[in-house]
Amino acid sequence: MAKDKLTDYDSTASNNLDVGGISVAEGMLPSGVNNAIRELMSHQADAFGAGTPLYVDQTNNRLGVGTAAPSSALNVVGDQAIFSGSAGTANIGLQIKANAILAIPSAQTQGYIASGSSAIGVAGDLLIAPRTSAAANIRFITGTSPEEAARLDASGNLLVAKTASNVANVGFEAKSDGAHFMTRDGGEPLKINRLTNDGYLIAFAKDGTTVGSIGADSGDLTIDGGASHTGLRFVSSYIQPRLNGSVSNGGVDLGTTVARFKDLYLSGGVYLGGTGSANLLDDYEEGTWTPEVRASSGTVLSASTKSGHYTKIGRLVQVNCDVTNIVTSGATSSDPIRIYNIPFTADTDFTFGACISSLVTFQSSRTQLVVRSNTGNFIEFMVIGSGVGLTNVDVQDLVSGSSDFYFSITYYTDQ
Questions:
Q1: Assuming Cys at both sites, which of 56, 116, 194, 259 could form a disulfide with 125, CB separation 3.0 to 4.6 Å?
Q2: Percentages of the chain per state (helix, strand, coil), in multiples of 5
Q3: Is residue 326 located within the same domain as residue 399?
Q4: Alpha-carbon distance 338 to 350, whole Å?
Q5: Phi and psi for 382 in degrees, rounded to 5?
Q6: Parent domain of 14
């Protein structure tokens, strides 16, 4: 058979006896040699031309495999395979087919990278698939070691910096059911940064309706409920109430009649009904105190009962006291009786309170007994009657060991 193209030639030189039917056998005429050389040159020119598996476009410096019109430097038409060993399915290192790049072969179906088609996905999509084994994952490898950086597991969970789904392990998980787990050792697992303007940093929704948000407002953190709901704004040294996404002045309650807070601990005061100094309630206190009975000259008198209670609201002090069976021995008879050790000093003299007594003599037709505050930090007992002035209750007006006093007085203090 005449050898009309390069692929017809034999690798054994002695078997090549003609070139395009022109004999090149031993003893041929010189004219035959010339003609054979010319024929061989034509074969070489057509070796990479149209109609051959390999086409060289010398004008555009392009190589076509399976095409006579290469559109790029290398244009291959049809399936391609690169083998890691001898030719065969088990040794394919990379195979390019009509709709997919197949890789990592085995006796099972190969994993692939493909464009979407009517059979798989949507036309134009990029598809990446592992082998068909139920436990197969898609893994992303980086670094010089190399190491696994992320994986999409067989359950559809995206795992970054971890190889198993577990919130206890450092890394990130975007789970197929919509849950997200972020775990970091020694630092914040989540940092959110909004640029340019104020607004939501995080929005919370239920069934598509926003029910709350965490946001930023002029450098302050805000927490808000949904539309027409309350919230808080955290400013440098105070917290502002918010309503419907804006700061509210007097429009937000703390608790309700059926949902109350328990205790409120304050180091300062409370402004009630206004914001002026007159509206400031800066103290409330309740307690007990131990009265001390003395004569005005300083003699301390004993008593079988000495008890007291007080309530302080702002500057106002309410004092209650019981002293019974007062013993007057050793005291000057003309000395007035006084109660010392009151819990707060009165800031003005002569605030009066109610008092009842037992076995106390009222002097000079006086019929009414009262108590009176004094800036000297004591309470004194006074009697008064119609047409006569106030006078003190003195030691001599008591029955030693039997007289009693029970009184209540309200006064102002500057303490």
A1: 116
A2: 10, 45, 50
A3: yes
A4: 14
A5: -130, 145
A6: 6-46
